[in-house]
Amino acid sequence: MQIIDKGSGTPLVLVPGLQGRWEYMRGTADALARSFRVLTFSLCGERSSGLRLEPAKGLDNYPAQIRAVLDERRVDRAIICGVSFGGIVAVKFAAAEPDRTRALVLASTPGPQWHLRRRHQIYVRAPRIFGPVFLAETPLRVREEIAAALPARLDRLRFGVTQLSTLLRAPVSLGRMGERGRLISTLDLVADCARITAPTLVVTGERGLDQVVPESGPSEYLRAIAGAHAAVIERTGHLGSITRPDVFAAIVREFVERQRDAAA
User: 170 near 23, Cβ under 8 Å?
Assistant: First the structure.
């Protein structure tokens, strides 16, 4: 299995989103690595991951991958940080492995009972046919939040070039994205949330700027997970951990330091 291991300090596992490739989280991993030892990877099923997805396991493939990463790098406990779809994986892991979860960070994560919108249900049934439509919609969905996060035109241009370069180097698979979409099409993590004992941080963008995950979704984790805390990345929406990675990393670092001080 290919594991990206960078930085030093408290181990933090960074779980990527629906696209499945760690490369789209490179800037986030770099920012977090200034404070933590970051372990990240491409989701199983991706060619670059080195791991096959076992259909019979369903969503449980991905928590098992986190466990394998920790075992491979001989890490007993880590902060588990999931972004968007990766947050769902992080919840499943934290519920099943409380002794190995030092803290849980959920960034722009669909709510514990999130369901695909009707048109997205159609997309995931035939991703190779309708997937290009989904990708074509993406710039329209995130245009407002990118303008807010990167008000300077030159910064937006650099961001666009970086994303295009990443897409060329690490192309996404519409079929594998569709498989992951089907796995969470009838999501119910309420029971998993009730089992989580690790300190939990729920990170969102500003209200109204996230056009991917409904605003009510992430806030449901604050009710479902005992003692969960909330934080907002200003001037951004769903992509806050990518468009403003330094701010995101600072929020995570401050949360972990507060928990460490409280425990001391």
Answer: yes
